Prior knowledge:
- This protein has 119 residues and is of the alpha+beta class.
- It is built from seven helices and five strands.
- Strands 1-3-2 form a three-stranded antiparallel sheet. The protein has a two-stranded antiparallel ribbon with strand order 4-5.
Amino acid sequence: xxxxxxxxxxxxxxxxxxxxxxxxxxxxxxxxxxxxxxxxxxxxxxxxxxxxxxxxxxxxxxxxxxxxxxxxxxxxxxxxxxxxxxxxxxxxxxxxxxxxxxxxxxxxxxxxxxxxxxx
Length: 119
C-alpha cells in the first residue's frame, strides 16, 4: 500500500494536538490511544508528523465501534496502511465505505465484514 493511495482515499486529516484540544484532554492521552491501538495515526506531510484520518474523530471521542473494528482487522493481520485502505474503500455490500457505515452507527455490519477477513 503506497502512501499515495492512502492520500487519495482519506479526504481530511487531524494532528494529535488538534484532537486533544477538541476532546479537552492532554495530547499524551491521544498518543497513548495510538500506542495502544485504539486509534491509527500515520506520519505524513513535510514534517512527517503523526496525523489521524479526520473521519475517525466524532466530537468528543472516537467514532463508535472504531476501536473494535481496528482490533478485528489487526487480528486478521492487516497492517496499519491496509486497515486505512479497507476502512475507506467502497464496499458494495454495505453500501459505501466501512468508515462511512461506522459514522452512520452501522457498526454491526462493519464488524461482521471485518470478522469475515479472519477466515
